[in-house]
Predict the 3D structure of the following.
Amino acid sequence: MPTEGSTISANVTRVVDGDTLVVDLDGVQEKLRIASLDTEESNPGGEKPETPFGKKAKEKAIATFPIGSQVTLEFAGTEPIDEALARYRDNFGRLLVWVYVEEKDFQEQMIREGFSPYFNKYGRADFAGHDQRYTHAERVAQSNHVGVWNQLEVNGSEMRNYALLHVWWNLRADVIDKYRAARQSRPELLNSRLDYQQIVELAAAGQTATIFTELRTFTRLGQRKAMVDIGSKAQPFKLFIPDMDTEEARDVIRLLDNRYVARDENHPGRSYAYVTGELKLFREEPEMIVTVADQLADSPPS
């Protein structure tokens, strides 16, 4: 079992989808999102289409994780478990972990058999060994033309354009890799998801900071104000534009629209930026005030 991060054991109580489980963790029911996987949907109502192969992926997970079976959960860092449980969660508050069963890497198996691409939209696997295994497993699936890489066979038609998604995900992964490298020597460069509690504390004190963040949605608030959201319910950090009537604010909006915010997977954007500015709390949630385009950058400010 090739783990490198902090680990904890849990018992499976329900399989939600091919990449989502519910486990009993010391008496607490935790929904978890399996890292590095993005299987197709088995149920309607989500952002992605429900597909026949999504149902197959769920069947594979059900066969792998019988109710009550014990699994090992691995986090993307080596912090103590209490810290890891608070830190490594996805946009919906689900634990974000790799899962092992009977010493086997479930992620590698699913990718190799074509049930999922190597999902690096939010960054490649944090450990080099994981990244190498999953990249190789994906190449094997692509070479064998199986699963999601043969949409006509498994779904009857192309339900998702993985070629296009792959290009966009890899662009995002490259941007995140550069951030991780910069963070090694500059710990003050915060991550809106991983360092959320620290950002809340800085916002409560009205401090200025540089934050690496995804920019997902743009929303107008009345006639003059606007908000940019990172798309996370669990880590609700936002950019606040107080006055869209100024030429400087219009520059910000045009930059967001043309460079950063992705309208959908067919109209991708860079997605990630370094934003620098004053933080504040609004209804206990951190916001950064943005008034000029120079507050957004592709690289950390010097």
Observations:
- Residues 179 and 185 are 11 Å apart (CA to CA).
- The chain has a mean pLDDT of 95.
- Helices lie at 52-64, 81-87, 106-112, 128-144, 151-155, 162-185, 196-204, 247-260.
